[in-house]
Amino acid sequence: MNIDRRMFSLIGGHRAPFILSIAASGAAAVMVIGQAASLSRLVNDAFIEKAPPAALLPSIGFFALFSMLRMFLGWLGHAEANRGTIAVRKDLFGRLTGAIALRGPLYARSLPSGRLSTTLIKGVEALDAYFSQFLPQLVLALLAPLIILIAVFPVDPVSGFILLATAPLIPLFMALIGKRAGAMTDRQWETLSRMSGYFLDMLQGLPTLKLFARSRSQHDAIADAGERFRTATMKVLRVAFLSSLTLELVGTIGTAMIAVAIGLRLLTAGLTFQTALFVLLLTPDFYLPLRQLGLKFHAGMEGTSASKDIFAVLDGAGNGSIDRSINGPIDGPEPEGHQKVPFEGKNTPEAAPFHRSEIRFEGVSYSYPGSTEPALSSLTCAIPAGRTTAVTGPSGAGKSTLMNLLLRFQDPCSGTITAGGRPIGEYPVEAWRELVAWVPQHPFLFNETLRLNIMMANRSATEETLLRAVRMAGLEELVDRLPAGIDTPVGEQGIRFSGGEAQRIALARAFMKDAPLLVLDEPTSHTDPELEATLQRAIGTLMQNRTTLIIAHRLETIRSADTILVLEGGRETATGTHRELMESSAFYRRAFLEHGESVQ
């Protein structure tokens, strides 16, 4: 059977519509009995008893009443099942996106983009048939035959026993065929996911494919993937049609057996005409829910296949909800010369004392899955409160890993990271990130207006605060030349902006957020020298009295830091000021002498 107990857990707090749908379906089955009873009595009175037309009116009225009630209850059952399914899908989509957001960008990047989008969109949509069709039909297939058996056994035990004996054949054949069909549907879903991922990958890499004249070969590869998906789909449909034929055949044979048994007893006067007609009218409705269950069974299989990827995402996030509370402030000694942050932006009461807290890495190690070498190995270092710390080192030294751990995009394999003596892991993820402003090297811009892209850092900010952030990030000239000013759409992934402009937008977000901890991943790497000087002054203002971490690649950024950490092989090999490191760190001195303006 196509039943997964975990699927029921997705219903969550949306049970009411499904319970009402089940109740309506059960009541509709009772109306079927009322229809058969009133119709059999009407035909018996009209053709056997030769009753006058006036005597037929009660039977006609009851038949019309039961028919209308059956239609209404059937509609109500479908409507409530659909309402419940919409609620489940909406809730599930929120849980999936929340789970992905909770685990962070590293988790999202570890999955093929096409497969992830297929799970979020097509996968959630595939559950529609499971919840709105298969589950209600499963309950109806249990209730309706049972109710009909209760009505048939007292008036015709022979027919009751025939119905009882033949009914299990339908689920039996359905299970036998469904097991094979389920495996085929799993392969079909896997083929669709791979094809989606491959197609998205080709679209993203289209400029490279055109440049190397490989677009034609990839066109043929996509055509082959589409053909494999078509073949897999046709195999599933072939089994589905075979299943439908088998179930219809079993139902037809059962109905024929009832008809023969009733006909023989009518000839020997062993059964009245009204009873015989009553049983015959109920027989198709006895098999109908079972036959329809077979059809809905195949409709729900895609949902079952999709649920495997859905549960993989939910289980990977630990099924934990995001706690939006803060368990108290991060306290610590206030640095000397502390002054109020000059920028008027978002500064929550929980965040206010954070700038007084030193951040420490104590024996922190991290290894990426499948890697034999640790990205960080027993790292112990400090990020002083209210000061600027730069981290540099060769490629693969662990700079990005250190940043990701601080942003809580991943958790250490061992060791602890503390702020003010308290492990940051004790803070809810969202609460911790409320205290952090991040300016990445390659910012992501959403397909919204420039205003919304900046204000996502602080939705409650005033227009004055927004315009000040634009000015301090050096975006005024850019805004002035846009068609609709700050309300101009930025396009898909900010296509209308250069890399330097995108970085300035990210910098404006940091000004808007006004968080006590600032993380900069080389924020001026895509700017010209003139603009860089302007932004350096703006960044200097932003960094005042904040705990700042800079992932450094360029020498100018490094020289101005209060403390510079040199990482090599996942370990801290030197720390100090620029002048001190020129004397104590061979890597730092060599990088300065060889590259001048760049430390990679």
Automatic annotation (TrEMBL):
Domain annotation ABC transporter: ranges: 359-594
This protein's record includes keyword rRNA-binding: no
PANTHER family (UniProt xref): ATP-BINDING CASSETTE SUB-FAMILY B, COMPONENT LINKED WITH THE ASSEMBLY OF CYTOCHROME' TRANSPORT TRANSMEMBRANE ATP-BINDING PROTEIN ABC TRANSPORTER CYDD-RELATED
GO MF terms held by the record: ABC-type transporter activity; ATP binding; ATP hydrolysis activity
All residue ranges annotated as the ABC transmembrane type-1 domain in the record: 19-302
Record carries keyword Cell membrane: yes
Bilayer topology term: Multi-pass membrane protein
Gene Ontology cellular-component annotations: plasma membrane
One GO BP: cysteine transport
Membrane-spanning segments: 16-34, 54-73, 138-155, 161-178, 236-260
Name of the protein in question: Thiol reductant ABC exporter subunit CydD
Superkingdom to which the source organism belongs: Bacteria
The entry's keywords: ATP-binding, Cell membrane, Membrane, Nucleotide-binding, Transmembrane, Transmembrane helix, Transport
InterPro entries: AAA+_ATPase, ABC1_TM_dom, ABC1_TM_sf, ABC_transporter-like_ATP-bd, ABC_transporter-like_CS, ABC_transptr_CydD, P-loop_NTPase, Type_1_exporter
NCBIfam families, A to Z: CydD
Subcellular location: Cell membrane
